[in-house]
Design brief:
single chain, alpha/beta, Spore Coat Polysaccharide Biosynthesis Protein SpsA, Chain A, eight-stranded mixed beta sheet, two-stranded antiparallel sheet, 12 strands, binds cytidine-5'-triphosphate, binds the ligand C[C@](O)(CO)[C@H](O)COP(=O)(O)O
Length: about 250
């Protein structure tokens, strides 16, 4: 927890919903991704600690694999977590979008800011979490942490079969593009409305807010907030963790 991580001002309460119900198909065979070990500790526990590290976050709702709720509850009981934070576990759904909705449905009434954070981004620093919360407190209905891209991006006509060449149709101007991370932060009422009204499938929650015609703003993300998606990401995550442990002297 950073020293400048601030508690909630009177009248605002922040909860974090952590969708953790994915299988992790792209990571390869094994347990559901969120339950796989990183530095000897389940990835989900890292993600939970990353949210609870913010003094502003007083509730974390974990959306567990549908058949894994008891296991996730036991994991939370077995690992040291801040006492000032409350925890809830609910079963997830078939898609990330559905899992987030199930997490939102479980929120008690007295939270007005909601973070949505992928269990698959276990190493996000607390300063990034706090920057997102701060931007919501300052009045943005939806906030995403984002980074500029290192690669040039092409829009293509997707191949009919894997491995076939794909015609390039456009090259968006890279300086205007951002890679978007989590936690994404929202006014609770706006996010709930988005999940109740937007029926298109989206790849992030902020995309639903855009569909409502509301302004989403980006704040600086962090390179350590990357998503563990493929096997090489796990190698990078282990290296980041090892570097942190070296710097912390244990
Ligand atoms: N039905 C789902 C699918 C995904 N997620 C969560 O959404 C986050 C981002 O999804 P992703 O990284 O794509 O995870 P998976 O869906 O597990 O990965 P894959 O697509 O490789 O199976 C993860 O924390 C994942 O657990 C979820 O809660 N419920
Ligand atoms: C929400 C997200 O992490 C923002 O980059 C991303 O869209 C999740 O995508 P996934 O395919 O469900 O991992």
């Amino acid at each position: 927890m950073s020293d400048d991580s601030r508690p909630s001002p009177a009248g605002t309460r922040t909860a974090a919903v952590i969708p953790a119900a994915g299988r992790g198909v792209r990571l390869g065979p094994g347990a559901p991704k969120a339950l796989r070990a990183l530095g000897g500790t389940p990835m989900l526990i890292h993600a939970v600690r990353a949210m609870a590290a913010s003094r502003a976050v007083s509730l974390v709702v974990v959306v567990a694999p549908p058949d894994g709720t008891p296991e996730v509850k036991s994991l939370l009981d077995a690992h040291a977590l801040p006492e000032r934070t409350d925890f809830l576990v609910v079963p997830g759904g078939d898609s990330r979008q559905e899992s987030v909705k199930l997490g939102l449905d479980a929120l008690p009434p007295d939270y007005d800011i909601v973070l949505v954070h992928d269990a698959a981004r276990p190493l996000v620093p607390v300063d990034t979490v706090d920057a997102v919360i701060e931007a919501v407190r300052e009045g943005a209905p939806a906030v995403v942490p984002a980074l500029p891209l290192a690669d040039t991006v092409k829009e293509v006509e997707p191949a009919a079969a894997p491995g076939e060449p794909e015609p390039v149709v456009a090259t968006p101007e890279r300086s205007r593009l951002r890679a978007v991370q989590t936690p994404q932060g929202f006014e609770r009422a706006t996010l709930v409305r988005a999940h109740e009204t937007v029926t298109d499938s989206v790849t992030d929650d902020a995309g639903m807010i855009e569909q409502l015609g509301l302004q989403v703003v980006a704040v600086p993300g962090h390179e350590e907030a990357f998503k563990v998606t493929r096997p090489l990401d796990l190698v990078l995550a282990e290296a980041v963790l090892a570097r942190r442990r070296l710097n912390d002297g244990f």
